[in-house]
Hints:
This protein has a single domain, classed as Ribonuclease Z/Hydroxyacylglutathione hydrolase-like (Metallo-beta-lactamase, Chain A). 25% of the residues lie in helices and 26% in strands. The chain has helices at residues 47-58, 79-86, 96-107, 179-190, 217-223, 233-245, 253-260, and strands at residues 3-10, 15-22, 27-31, 34-38, 43-45, 62-67, 76-77, 89-93, 120-122, 127-130, 133-139, 148-152, 155-157, 197-199, 214-216, 268-269, 274-275.
Amino acid sequence: MSIQIEAFFHQDTSTLSYVAFDSKSLKGMVIDPVLDFDIYSGSLSYKTANIMLDYIDSHHLDIDWVIETHTHADHLTASQFFKNKLGAKVAVIDAVIQVQKTFNTKMNLQVKNNGSQFDHLFVDNEVFNLGDIPVRILATPGHTPDSICILVDGNVFVGDTLFMPDGGTARCDFPDGNASQLYHSIQRLFELGDDLILWMCHDYQPHGRELVYKTTVSEQKKYNIHLKHNTSQHDYVALREQRDKALKAPKLLLSAIQININAGILPVDENNNLGFIKIPLTIT
């Protein structure tokens, strides 16, 4: 019994997507898939998703799940592509309902805010299987209310809970984000054991270094620039909030949120292949 993991890097958004599967049964899951989107022209494509699909097909995998580690603000999800191609269930944690309600209000959207767009809403500590391999969903709010980590066979897909040690931790200034919650979520992750392998959702390659996207709990404890030397909750929150004040909004935030809280369902008219998203205006 062993889990196999293949990573796919989307350079434009510095996002890691994954295919993880049981090597015996070939049952698998797709994690955080990216839809290619050019914000300047409004054009969408499935180039990156098709690379993942080619891998899935060539390895004869049976993909049961497409899982989002949170409502992403930096890329559009390709989850519906894999649902349509493979019959996989699109899943998030049930806290996505809070995110839907928040952005419906803030952006004057009309997205259903009961989570019904998704095929399954996880709850904290829920377990499902890939073949004989159990997969556990851990609620790790802070970056967003619906952030999760996915624990499987000594590996954890951490979403934006952590970055590589030289990248620190995720911002908490999005609506309903909370630095204290993120600190506790990280501690929960650390308590699972020093040898766990952690797989990142992003690598921004600080100082131009080569791409790296996996590390261990032990390395995070020792070297994470926001957490090393047993940083207290008070000091971490102060550091995180100070850093967040200086950050710009992600380029794709307004586009990504509208698509991602709707389970990746595009607002496209099937007759003319044209759709629209809202761009809120603020007068200062």
